[in-house]
């Protein structure tokens, strides 16, 4: 047994079922074409509360657990596919089978977990073997409540990508917290979920729907390490000023600037020696973009498109130029969807994936960098009744499914900057974290 695993004790597992039975009319949830395309990886996210409010600070662990279990049961009534069973790659049998809810004790202060720069201990707050898993025999959503010996708690969720994306996960957690915070209130969560993605993206009619896949959204699985970097508000302002002063991009967004900067620095640390000198490796950036709008905000499931840029020469690495390319591609995608009819949404989206895939196929020797952003998602508003989380963590590289060259952008814990979770091969990370220009603007999180 490793020294890390010795920190965990008294694991308890329960099955939480929806508070009210799912109506017969909703028992079969058809996967949309986008649900079918994406791999069923389990997305992990954990909400850390080092100190509970006075009302809850002296409550026994079982009372906190019961409070969460009761409210989880109620919210599952609205998110009924999470408590069902996946039927191949076709549908979810919403049979109210329930979700797994683990409770555990971690025998160290929470700070020991949060201060681990390489996330080696972060997986302790997740159900063992679930984060990043592609094949898991349990429920489509798996939860863990971790009690630390300092009095703090962590609440984690691992959601199968087959039933939702990051937006779905964020809404679920806030909806759950709203019910937990006001158990006796009639307060209605403002976004009432609808699992109607198949009406916008009709599923394939192929008999063998398991063949539906796309290279762009099936991550490369290699031995990787993850590390987080923080870009403060002041440093972010400085990067934006550089872009504004040297390009025609107006009001560059946090996602555009940080994605371009991290991409630029990742390329710079992998320069190669050729006969004529030193050159960069051809590189492709894939950026996920939400389709809400044009889809309604309450549409759950997988609803995102993709756009890409190619960088082949060092002169293309200039930060303002990379941001300009990202903005141009994003605006083109937005225009395609702006006036699209419902029946046009799927062809447009598939064309975007085809374009990204063709770019990769036609540049087979290039390095691929995947970027996803949850900036502005209300993750730091998830208050179950004892205050908002001090930190939200999402290790994107685990022992189950390491993801090469994956970068997730999140709001920083103080809400005035951006945190970037980077997953790279170990030798690439060693070079990346020593890059002088990176360290001028980004600080390793500790």
UniProtKB/TrEMBL annotation:
This is Acylsucrose acyltransferase 2. Keywords: Acyltransferase, Transferase. Gene3D superfamilies: Chloramphenicol acetyltransferase-like domain. Belongs to the plant acyltransferase family. GO terms for molecular function: acyltransferase activity. The keyword Acyltransferase applies. InterPro entries: CAT-like_dom_sf (IPR023213). It comes from Solanum pinnatisectum. It holds the Pfam family Transferase.
């Amino acid at each position: 047994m490793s020294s890390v695993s010795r920190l965990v004790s008294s694991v308890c597992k329960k099955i939480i079922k929806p508070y009210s039975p799912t109506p017969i009319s909703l028992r079969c949830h058809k996967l949309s074409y986008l649900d079918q395309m994406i791999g069923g990886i389990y997305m992990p996210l954990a909400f850390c509360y080092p100190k509970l409010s006075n009302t809850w600070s002296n409550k026994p662990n079982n009372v906190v657990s019961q409070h969460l279990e009761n409210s989880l049961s109620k919210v599952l009534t609205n998110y009924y596919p999470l408590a069902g069973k996946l039927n191949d790659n076709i549908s979810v049998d919403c049979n109210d089978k329930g979700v797994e809810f683990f409770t555990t004790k971690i025998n160290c202060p929470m700070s020991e977990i949060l201060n681990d720069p390489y996330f080696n201990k972060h997986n302790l707050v997740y159900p063992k073997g679930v984060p990043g898993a592609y094949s898991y025999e349990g429920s489509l959503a798996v939860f863990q409540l971790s009690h630390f010996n300092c009095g703090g708690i962590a609440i984690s969720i691992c959601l199968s990508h087959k039933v939702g994306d990051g937006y779905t996960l964020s809404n679920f957690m806030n909806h759950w917290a709203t019910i937990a915070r006001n158990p006796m209130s009639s307060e209605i969560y403002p976004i009432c979920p609808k699992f109607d993605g198949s009406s916008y993206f009709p599923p394939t009619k192929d008999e063998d729907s398991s063949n539906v896949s796309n290279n762009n959204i099936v991550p490369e699985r290699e031995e990787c390490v993850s590390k987080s970097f923080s870009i403060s508000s002041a440093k972010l302002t400085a990067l934006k000023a550089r872009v504004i002063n040297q390009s025609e991009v107006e009001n560059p967004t946090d996602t555009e600037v940080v994605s371009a900067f991290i991409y630029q620095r990742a390329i710079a640390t992998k320069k190669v020696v050729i006969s004529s000198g030193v050159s960069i490796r051809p590189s492709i950036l894939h950026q996920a973009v939400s389709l809400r709008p044009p889809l309604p905000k309450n549409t759950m499931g997988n609803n995102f498109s993709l756009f890409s840029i190619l960088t082949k020469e060092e002169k293309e690495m200039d930060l303002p130029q990379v941001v300009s390319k990202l903005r141009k591609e994003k605006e083109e995608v937005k225009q395609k969807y702006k006036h699209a009819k419902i029946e046009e949404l799927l062809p447009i989206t598939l064309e975007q994936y085809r374009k990204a895939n063709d770019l990769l196929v036609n540049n087979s020797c290039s390095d691929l960098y995947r970027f996803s952003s949850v900036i502005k998602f209300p993750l730091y508003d998830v208050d179950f009744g004892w205050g908002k989380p001090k930190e939200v963590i999402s290790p994107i590289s685990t022992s189950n499914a390491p993801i090469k060259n994956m970068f997730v952008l999140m709001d920083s814990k103080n809400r005035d900057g951006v945190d970037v979770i980077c997953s790279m091969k170990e030798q690439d990370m060693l070079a990346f974290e020593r890059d002088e220009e990176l360290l001028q603007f980004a600080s390793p999180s500790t």
